[in-house]
Structure formats: structure tokens, C-alpha cells
Amino acid sequence: MHFIYFLGRFHVLAVHLPIALVLIVAALEWLTRKGRRPDLQPALGLAWGATAICAIGTVILGYMHFAEGGFHGPTVEAHRALGTSIAVVSLVGWIMRSQASIQFQKARPAIVVLLVALVVATGHFGGELTHGSGYLVQYAPNFIREMAGLAPIGPRATTLAAADPYTDVIAPVLEQRCMQCHSSSQQKGGLDMSTYASLMKGGGDGPVIVKGNAKASDLIRRVSLPQTDDDYMPKEHPPLSADQITLLTWWVNGGARTGVKVAALNPPPQIQSLIQDELNPAPGGGSAAELARQPNAARDKAIEEAARKLAQEAALAEEQPPKQADPKAIAQLQAAGFMARQVSLSDTDLVVSPALPGAGFSASNIQALSTIPSDQIIDLNLADAGLSDADIAPIARLTALTRLRLDDNKLTDRALPVLSSLPKLVEVNLVGNPGISDAGMQALAAIKSLRRVYLFQTGVTKAGTAKLHQLRPDLEIDAGDISVAPGGAPQNPDPPARQDPKSNS
Amino acid sequence: MKRRSKRDGAVLIGGSDLKDVVDAARRSFLTKAGLGLGLGAVAAVDVLGLSRANATVAPPASRTAPNLGKFATGQFPATAKRVIYIHLLGANSTVDLWDYKPLLVKMNGQPMPASELGTQKLSSMSSGQAAFFVTAPVKPLRQHGQSGVWVSDFLPHLAGVVDELCFVKSMYTEQLNHGPAQMLLHTGFQLAGRPSDGAWVSYALGNDNTNLPSFIVMTSGILQGVPTDTGTWSAGFLPSEFQGAQLREGADPVLYLNNIGGVTSEERRQLLDSLSNLARADYRSSQDPDIFSRIRQYEMSYRMQHSIPEIVDFSDESKSVLDMYGPNVMRPGTFAHNALIARRLSERGVKFITLYDLGWDHHFQLPERMTKCAQKFDQPAAALIRDLKQRGMLEDTLVVCGSEFGRTPFAQGSAGAWGRDHHGGNFTWWMAGGGTRAGYSHGQTDDFNYNVIGKPTTTYDMNATMLRLLGIDHERLTYFYLGRNYRLTDQFGDVVNEVIDSSDAALRLS
After folding, report:
1. Within an 8 Å CB–CB cutoff, is residue A307 touching chain B?
2. What is the radius of gyration, based on Cα positions, of chain A?
3. DSSP H or E stretch at residue B245
């Protein structure tokens, strides 16, 4: 049975085929009227055949979808009857066309007009079923709404004195959150919330609202349940906001009244302010509380996508066989007072730092770097090692280096050209080298692969960072108080706080 | 290290003879048990299990060999090389500080609706109250930075670095009392006895500085009700050298570290060498692997005689940096002082630093006490972020700031001296650096600040995420003890991948 339901859901997709084909048939019939454009005649036969076959197939899918249940009322009956007749009429049309009989020649325009009319009507009712009744004309001008038999949208009541508790406060909430499934056309659980009377009548299990008793009302109970509960409503949708539940509870406890004005019910101040929010929604919809947690959908989606990718990569890493870095290189580095770790169990590149940071490091330690294979160290920490310009020459051959820490040494601008021989260097930390000055910025800018540089407590001035930014706008420059983001102008690290208009004080 | 034993040809593992260890452990067990209960199969299995786990502990090698830990490296490239873990002990009110809910302002003074309270567990300190009055945040919250995160006026300095922070607003916990909740947070189990977060990291990754312990703990603030618990930095059943080393306030940060009067460093060295020889002799007869753990700790404390005084001497810090941490920075025992020490330890490669700040258990007089706590915490915390950032160290230093639970959106106690009670239903943590997604807020809470309604996150998840940032798969970091493997995340925990900033990973490594 589930497979039938599965196929049935394709009805809403397949339905577009016969619609388009009927329109093609109509167009072709019109073009070939009274013997014109005989060249199009073969296409006409083909189009009729395709229309009939697609219409029949779609109707079969439609019955499968209907079998799933949950569809009641006149709309679905009309949709079913009209849809079935499209299949019948298009089949008749195809047969008559292939007979090329004289009767068909006369009945042709009538059959085509009938078919188009049927498609429009069926499509409309189908749309009502999927999108909810009144979807099409919801924002239509009032004269169209009246033609459709709907109440004109007056200027909505915006004050407590003029508002009706049901029509202006509760009904919009129900329409927004409940009526996708509980409307006159789609009465899930037999419940129709489209009018006050049908709401009070309740669903298949009896009334959902007990006037004056929110606790006993099934509607209130279900929307207050945790999302994991079987009875939770709205099913498979985010829960109603606390404001909405509070309003519903107040309304039911007050006797679920309509035909009076809100002001006459003397709502407590808290409810008054919630109703005000409801009557005068903030731009973009929703109360202030909802706005405050309005997610940035595009950003959230990107973040979730990135998270999924990370999880996948982690799962892949699990399956990677462990790889061992060259033990000789590691031993050599250790003997020279370094500490070397692999990047990860499956990545044999090395991350290297002094074994005793800030204690007795000298140029002789660094000499060891010139004897190990040059393509293994990707991350080297030489912070606080007492280095002067001549000492760092052995670094030049570490061509795999992406990240280099040289902070708190005695380097000057003369040391910087060494770095330009590192083709993969992405980041360099020069913090605490007072000898680095504005004159060195040219050399830094020349390191093409560089993306980030730290210059706090160096001799570099604001003019220097501005010059570097001008030479390399793609560079992230952090000089302590004068940070420059890539692409942008120098930033004040403390942008003035945005004031909340509704701030609580 | 493999070599044939002289006696019976057994393979030597990590310098200790497995069969000897088993024999010795069995002898020791039988002596201690007095040939009493548990003899037979059960005892034998127990003894074997125990010694199997411990036999891999190697004797201390040469004094300067790097301490790479059990793993040396994790399963993944690490974006964080070290962790600074700030625990606001007693549980800060994130209702007042971070998670802005206009409804609390609107409903200030009205009872919480019963539907909202639901069946959530309350602490016995407020569960007897006749009514639960919604109470608005003490000071207004405003949006700050590019990210527009809401920050209380209590935290003007942190508001200035808000774009560097990554928030988890959907934290929740089952534990409503301080002791078990803290224990759960740091060890993955609510009862004492398991290894703590820093001990696990220390065991796995060792340290980037041979002269300092890899796990250091400091405390600040005034004890008000909720004390620190050494169980939250214990090594549990891991070898004892992995427990957190506590730095005390004052001129003598490590007790008994300095030589006693009349003893020179030279003599101390000789003493240690003789002690080491005695210990080795002891090991030959008892085969107790914990002896090596002890020797390593003696050696560490000897090296700390030189490394620690230098850490707590701020004379090489510039005035602007000291000013940034605020007026308390030179006063030992304050959060400002500890925050600067934490930065200095990070620079010297310490893997895991936990800062406990006491005094956040505001059951009563919340406005007054929050003012005091926030004042002492806000400026140094923001300074720590800024300082790490401008030194280029924030990108590989993970800063975590959280509490064992949150506090209720309703008031506890009388109107004149109100506070907020313990609340496990939802609370906010923040992180910075170490590869976290700056400016991002994870998860959602409801309009009352009472329940999580999106992306619920536990302390297990946070521990798993922290290990992931350090490059470790939390399911692979295990230790065999009493017949089974244990891990920091017990049997739970999912990495919160959303808080990991993958876009920049390529810039950092490979």
C-alpha cells in the first residue's frame, strides 16, 4: 500500500504534463482551423494522443493519491470529477480525431473549449487542495475577492476597541499555522478551522475547544506538547510561539467569543500588548520576540552544509590507514631541541616547535633544519628564540612551509626577503620584533602566497599598514589596535554599539 | 625499545617486563587481599586486566625528551593547539548576560504560565515557592558588532569583541546541583573518579613544553557557597602525572616548589637522582608502574622551580597590555591576574589551562552580586581574547567559557533580595578561536528562556567538539580500566560541526 501512496504523490508533479499538452492541442487546433497550416496536421494527431495518455495516467496517479486519505469536502470531489472528465474528454477527442469523421470536424471547437475549461477548473481546485482555499485570491483586489465569494479585506482592525477577538486575533493565527492541513478542503483528522462554526464543531474525535476551559481543550493541549510527542501539533512544523499559545489560551478561557470587541473583554495588560503585536505586526511579520530569533536562512543553510561536509570528512578520515612520518627526521629534530608532530595520523607533514619554548635556543638549533627533507615541515614555531636576521637563513629551504611564527625575536626588515623563497607561506607572525618597520612592507607584499600577517609590537606604523594594504588588498593585517580586514578599509576594532529601539531599561 | 629479557625471554614492552608486572601485581594483590575474598578466576582476570592497562607506562627517559603524549597527534588536523577553559563556578545567569528575550521584559513580575513551566525539574531550593514570577534581565541588553549578538550592559568589554566569539545558546544538562553538574562537565560522569578533560588531553597529546605540566588549573574570586572540587581536575584512573597542577595565588604559586633553607639547587638535583635510584630499585622488586609516574612528577617539579617564577613575573609586559587587563591584573588571586598568566602559559606551549572563577551562584541579591562578579570578569576576559588575537595566537588557542548549568528566568526568594535558582533547561556558553566559527550563535531557546527549541547541546557534545578541534576523535581516546574502555564522553557526545569554521582551515594548515 505504501508504494501506491508513494506513486500517488507524483500526481502533483505529473499533473503539469496534461495541462501543458491541452494548451498545445488548443493552439494547434486553432492554427489548423479551416484547413490552414496543413503541415501541422501530423503534430496535431500526436498532440491529441499524448494528451489522452498523459491525462489518463495522471488521473490514475490522482486516485492513488486520494487513496492515502485526508482529503474531504466539495473541493476534492469537484477536482476528482473534473479531472476524470478531462481524461474521458481527451480520450474521446483523440479517437474522433483519428477517425477524422465529419462529426468531429463540427464538434471540434466545442470539445477543445470544453477541455480547456475543464483544465482551468480542475487546476484551480487542485491548487486549492495543495495551497489551501483562498490562496489564489488572498492578495487580490477586493472586487475579485467579492466575485470569489470572500469577505473583502477591509482596513484590518488595528485597535483593541475595534478588533474582534476571533476574526482579528485568533483567526489569523489559525490561518497562518493550522489551516494548511485543517481547512474546508483538507480536513486532516476531520477538523476544519476555516470558519468559527466549523472550528467549534471540532474534528473526528469531538470538539477541540471547550469554551471557558483551555485545560480541557484538545487544541491548546496539543500545541503545548513537546515536538517529540505523538499528539504534538502542528505536526512536522515548528511549534507555535509562546505568544501565540498565550493568546489562544486567553481566548478559550474567556469563552472563545466572537461578535464582541476585544476591549469589552478587559484583557490583562500582558494580553493587551500581545494583541497589539498581532494587530500591528512588525515589518516582515511576527512579534518582536520572533523577529529577535529570526534565522538568517541562507547563512544557516550554508553553515549546515559546511557542518555536513565536516562530518563526512571525519567519517572518511576514520577509514584512512594511519601513516607514519619519517622517524629519522623526527629524531633529528628532537636531537636539535625541537618537538615534531605529524599533522594527523593520516597526514605525515610535520608541525614543529621548540621543545623548550623561550629557553636557550640558538642558531645552532636552527642549523638542524637544513639537514632534514625540506618538504615535510608545514608549520614552524620559532617564537621567542632570540633569533637575529642571520639565524633564519636555513628557513629558506623549507618550501612546504605554510605557517611561520617568528614572534618575539630580534629580526629586522633585512630578514624578510628570506621569506619570499617560501612558495606556500600563507601566514607569518612577526609580533614583538621592533626592528621590523614600514620599510619592510614591500618585501612582505612580495610574498604572493601570503594571506595573513601579524605585526603587533613591531616598528610598523599606521602608514606602514596602510601601504601594505594598498599593495596587497587581499591580505589580512593584524597590528593590534590597527587591524585591516582583507578588501575593506582599516577597521575600528570597536564599532559603535547598535542601539535597540525597544531596549528594556 | 624491544629487547630480550635475560631471565625467560619475555618481550619487554615500553621498558617494563609484562610477565614481571603481572607476577608482581598478582603477588601484591594476594598480599593486600590477605588471600581472602575474590580468589580464583575473578581475581586473576581482574589482576590481568589491571596490569595490561598499566604495563604500557614507560619509565622516564632523558630529562629533555619532548612529551608527545600517547597519541602525539590526533586523527584529524588540529585547528586548536591548546585550550583555555574558563569555568564560571556556581553558574552564571545567561538570562541576564547573553540570551535576550523581550517577553521577560514584557511579562516582568507576572507568574510564569504553567504550560511553560511544564514538568521540567526544579531545584529543591525553589520548587516549594508558591509562584514563579518572571523577572526581566537586571540591565538592558543591546546588539553589538557585525554579528548583532545581544550583550548585557554588564559586559561592556566583551561586547567589544563579540564578533570573535562563537555562542552555543542551546546548552542543557540533567544535573541540577553544583557538584554532580561540574563533575559531569569536566569528566563526563556525575560522580567523582573519572579522569578530567585536561587529564585526557594531557594523556593524549602531552605538552609543547617539557618544563611545564600540560594541564594547569587556577582559581579566582571569593568562595560563596560553591567550592572548587579537585575531582574536576583529577587524573582519575589515568596515571597520576596527568592530573591538573594547581597554581596558587601569591608569591608561591606551587607549594613546596622552592628549595628549603640551606639546600642548593645542586643538592636538590643530587637528592632527586638518589631518589630516582631508590625508586628504580623499588620498581625492580614491586614492579609497580606508578613509581615511574611519581619519578616523572618529581622531575617536573624540579624543572618548575625555574619555569614557574618566570611565568608569574609580569615585568616584561608592556604597560598597555597590563592596562588592557584592568586594574586587578597585578593582584594575585584575581581573574585578571589568572587570565594574563593563562596567556603566558599558552605562549609557552601549555596544552590545557582551566580558570575557575568563583562566586557566580546568585540565589539572592543577584543585581548586586552580578555587578561585582561581572566587573571583575568582563574586562580581563575581553583582554584575553584581544591579547591572543593581536599576538596571532587566537587562531590556534581555543577559549571556552561556560558554567555547569544556567539560572531560572523567574525569581527566587523575596522581592528585596531576589536571585535566580539553578536551571538545567537551557543556558549559554561561548567559545573563541581555535577554529571555531566567529560571530555565530548555535541553537535556539524559547521566548521565556526556559527550554531549548533548536539544536540541543550537552556537555558531552561540547567535550567531543573540544577534542575534535584538538584533532582527536572522542570515540578513539580511550583507556582500559576495570575490564572496559573508558572515554571523556562516556557513551555519548556528538561533535557540533556547525561551530567549526571550516572555511579558514586551508589557511591554517596544509
Report:
1. yes
2. 37
3. strand B245-247
